[in-house]
Fold:
Amino acid sequence: MTLGKEYCYDNDIIKQFARWLRERFATEKDGVILTREDINQLSGRQSFTLGFVNDIHYELMQHGIAFVTDTSREKFYLIPINSAENWRKKLEIQYEKELYCNVFPIEKSG
Structure:
């Protein structure tokens, strides 16, 4: 199976767009939100498929950035993942805080 020019063209656009996003937002600690209109304007595309979103996500994940969308594909989120921690570790830390911070004061009697 040979890939057509259209696929190669799309692949180049996807890589360029992912690189553009990464270069501008890689240092964001809290992530950024883009709208569908933003993506259309920035990528030069009138419409795009879920495959387009998945391909952008794949390119960015190699650099520690997730590219995800809401269920209606109206908002898109660039989220840094390098600082994410294991869920068990987070729960253990939370449990320890609750254990040591949830102390009841002893009432003095008269």
